[in-house]
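[job 0412] stage=complex_fold ligand=zinc ion status=START
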Amino acid sequence: MSGEGRDAAAEAGARGDPAGPGNPAAAAGPGATAGTTLIRGGTVVVGETVARLDLLVRGERIATVGDLAGSRADRVVDADGLLVLPGGVDSHVHFNDVFMGTVSVHDYLTGTRAAAYGGTTSVIDFSNQVPGGTLTKTLEDKKEEARGKALVDWGVHPVITRADEATLTEIPEMVRMGAPTIKCYMTYRSDGLLMEDEDLVRIVRRLTEAGGMLMLHAEDNDAIEANVPRLVGEGKTAPIFHAWSKPPEVETEAIRRIVAMARETGGRFFIVHLASPGGLELVAGAMEEGLDIRAETCTHYLVFTEAMLEREDGIKWICSPPLRDEGVRQTLWEGVADGRIRMVTSDDAAYSWEAKLYGKDRFDLCPNGIPGIEPRFQILYSEGVAGGRISLLRFAEIVSTEPARLFGLYPRKGTLEPGADADIVLLDPEARWIMGQDTLHMATDWSAYEGIEMTGRIVKVFSRGELLVDGNELLGTPGRGRYLHRRLDVQ
Ligand SMILES: [Zn+2]
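[job 0412] stage=complex_fold status=DONE, emitting structure tokens
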């Protein structure tokens, strides 16, 4: 799992080509990607190093990192007192997602705009197979959705909803098309998403053989299908009963089955939005056993507890798996800190307030999801690094490097090593501010992250060398974001 390229470049001094004095001062107008940018004097996180360094960007890529005091460039950015971090990689977002009678309000314009403001320069979306449709078609549809809209680079995880032979035959084609990570759901039968275990086994065999990885939404459907009607029948319809309908064992049981599938098949698995201590133990044990299983958690499980569901506006925090208690929140942070949880994504699922209100009197009718694409990076810095829970290096790993590695983007994304795309976030570690609807740029007309006291604020965001966000100003042209053709490492 150690990244190639890092060791070779880890020698002391400047990395990459010297920023020779011969850079002609070619005109680089606002937003121009041509020419060179010198980011001077910031605290740079590169590989395993945190140090005061300069960073030279040439065109779309990072050219050199080191002491570049004598270098010239077309433009110079003073990063004194700022952190210089790799752009965020959020491998779990839902754009234009049709779900529970609504569709997410984040499309490729509004979703990637919020991502950019939040320091995320690469996103990976999901494309659900529709009844009668092929996987290839879902991927082509996503390319249409992104055309003229995407502000940051984007990729796709196809979602299989039907494991017939025609679909299985398409799996190697998905890998070839740069979408080698396919997701399936172990629940949501009424939304047409549920896949049975025997189908998952067939899918993971094909997928692993083709060089891919199966992502799983791990919740035991039988338990949910028994609990929901029982609770509703008893009149227990308030938001908190969403958590009762899916106690932690619902996830643990599904993960137990996944571990068994991994043993049986030798397949490659990734568990999305892990949120239970039992599940964490199973995943940690499976990794120790040498099974090819990894897991992420999501921002909201590290920030909120199920107490939010007790509020009058508790439907804001209905998501699956549900939020848990304070003990679980602490346990998940420990897993993030020590690496049993590899990374943290947003699971951005931005439903309008009107749609969330479907669940006002019935928790089971509320579209499950929390808009979180923009808060992720800064919340994890504030709660994680400023809050003393994780190191700055670990922060860079969980928001950028690990998702890039595990989802086939490294070392092009996820690092500030020379040669990587110049996706760079400048963050003021001392800035104090309040996160909320007024300070966020997401398309939803409400926010779950309201009134949170923050330490650390993004100042500038570069995407492939282009200054995309400058303070509160967005500079990029919609459509500039490119499709990320991904390929997993052989491990
Ligand atoms: Zn999701």
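The longest strand covers residues 424-435.
[job 0412] exit 0
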